């Protein structure tokens, strides 16, 4: 037996017994396999539904983030009527500066 150390197998057999902790075989019947497969299908469908729900939640979060960034880029932040929001102006200037730096037009 190439690649298998017979001494290790014998030592494990001495320490753990001839069957070790291997499960014993319980053959399925047609009825038992049908119920197991039905349960497995139900579990998989539930898992798929949970993943779909999680995916939709992530997509909604991404859309919200992209929408918020778009509002930031185009200056549509929540402003009180008739007042200029100094923070939003600073953010816009900072974003323009960042855009210049990223495009190579600005100097650090």
Please tell me about this protein's structure.
The chain is mostly helical. It is 69% helix and 0% strand. The chain has helices at 6-16, 30-74, 86-103. The longest helix has 45 residues, at 30-74. The radius of gyration is 32 Å and the shape is elongated.
Portion of residues within helices: 55-70%
Overall 3D geometry?
elongated
How large is the count of helical segments?
A: 3
Alpha-beta content class: mainly alpha
What is the total tally of β strands? 0
Approximately how much beta-strand content do the residues carry?
Answer: under 5%
Euclidean distance between termini CA atoms = 67 Å
The largest β sheet comes out as: none
* N-to-C SSE string, H for helix and E for strand: HHH
Q: Give the mean pLDDT.
A: 76
Radius of gyration equals 32 Å
Spans with pLDDT under 50 lasting ≥5 residues? none
Topology:
Elements: H1 6-16, H2 30-74, H3 86-103
Question: Can you give me a brief rundown of this structure?
Answer:
By secondary structure, this protein is mostly helical.
């Amino acid at each position: 037996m190439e690649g298998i150390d017979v001494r290790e197998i014998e030592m494990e057999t001495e320490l753990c017994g001839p069957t070790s902790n291997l499960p014993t075989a319980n053959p399925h019947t047609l009825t038992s396999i049908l119920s197991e497969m039905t349960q497995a299908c139900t579990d998989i469908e539930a898992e798929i539904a949970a993943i779909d729900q999680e995916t939709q939640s992530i997509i909604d979060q991404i859309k919200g983030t992209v929408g918020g960034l778009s509002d930031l880029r185009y200056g549509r932040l929540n402003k009180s009527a008739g007042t200029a929001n100094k923070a939003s102006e600073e953010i816009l200037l900072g974003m323009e500066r960042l855009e210049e730096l990223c495009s190579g037009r600005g100097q650090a």
